[in-house]
Amino acid sequence: MSLTGKHILSSDQFERQDLERLFQLADLLVPVARGEQVTRVLEGAVMASLFFEASTRTRLSCETAFLRLGGGVTSTTGTEVTSIAKGESLADTSRVVTGYVDLVVMRHPEVSSIHEFAAATNVPVINAGNGAGEHPTQALLDMFALHREFDRLGKPMDGRRIALVGDLKHGRTVHSLVKLLSRYQDMTIVCVAPEELGMPEYLLELAAERGHRVEVTDQPSLGLKDADLVYTTRLQTERFKDRPLPYSDDFRIDSALVNRVCREDAVIMHPLPRDSRPGSNDLSADLNRDPRLAVFRQTDAGIPTRMALFASVLGVADEIAGSLRPARWYRPEYTGPDDAPFYK
């Protein structure tokens, strides 16, 4: 399926062949994302970055991805600095903003918002997170990062055991990720969460209907065992509205638990942000030097993946290979002090 001119609102839109084409293009763009090469295929194009909910990685990586392709970015953050604070509808905002730009990336705390916004325009709209709904660009970068991890380990994507851990009810990243994982074959998807924070039933049914094994447990020590991927998520406290938080210390994914139950070649991922404070029930910082921890390799995958998506949506993907040239500025050593030695 051609992505040119399409809204990207849900992971439902992607078949396996779409993912493979995007990931081939993302591989080509990794040197551009790292500042080692340059392309200007989107020179003159403008992206609107509309974030009505907090963001660090998604907003900055989307903006950087568009700039790396040679485009320009105009942005706003929060509703209080827009005319929405004066009562303007999302549809009116969409009609106005999309008269200025060539593509919109939007995050909003309400699930239906992205659909209302996209319905008011023919300019491509990219969902950067709609409440507890979906986060398709995060799922795409997660899958690209996972492909690279499994390639390094000599594992095919098909037939893997995947453990999804944490707040699976409100975690939009795992909602989108399950939809992409289910495009592969013979997966075992293990959902590890307290009962009240479990994966929505329709997603469990979707994975089962596509021929995958689905397991549910509230015991991380059982769910993480033999998993090829451990994908942890934080407790979405902003979705609870002062209710008690149904979480226990069992959901602290730390080196003691990982070393006790995880495979030596497991991949550990997290969409971030994580709560790294002592005693928090999240992915522990004591794993930072464990080579199985791929969270920063994962975040680095965001720019080439989003570059590939933007180039595809704006119809210039085929121009990239012939447009690349070396960058002329100084670049320091790419890896950081805690990065695994194989990561270059």
Order of helices and strands: HEEHEHEHEHEHEHEHEHEHHHE
Major pleated sheet: 5 strands, parallel
Q: What's the β-strand tally?
A: 11
- Give the overall form: globular
Strand order, sheet with most strands: 8-7-6-9-10
Distance between the termini: 33 Å
Any idea what the CATH superfamily of the largest domain is called?
Aspartate/ornithine carbamoyltransferase
Helix coverage percent of residues? 25-40%
Poorly predicted parts: none
Share of β-strand residues:
5-15%
Short characterization:
This protein is an alpha/beta fold and about 350 residues long. It has helices at about 15-35, 55-70, 90-95, 115-120, 135-155, 170-180, 200-210, 220-225, 255-260, 295-300, 300-315, 320-325; strands at about 35-40, 45-50, 70-75, 105-110, 125-130, 160-165, 190, 215, 230, 265-270, 325.
Polypeptide structure, described:
This protein is an alpha/beta fold and 344 residues long. The chain has two domains: 11-134 and 302-326, Aspartate/ornithine carbamoyltransferase (Rossmann fold, 3-Layer(aba) Sandwich); 137-298, 3-Layer(aba) Sandwich (Rossmann fold), CATH 3.40.50.1370. The protein contains twelve helices and eleven strands. It has a five-stranded parallel sheet with strand order 8-7-6-9-10. Helix 9 (255-261) links the parallel strand 9 (229-232) and strand 10 (267-269). Helix 2 packs across helix 11 (302-313), helix 3 (90-97) packs across helix 4 (113-119) and helix 5 crosses helix 11 (302-313). It is globular. The protein starts with 15 loop residues before the first helix and ends in an 18-residue tail after the last strand.
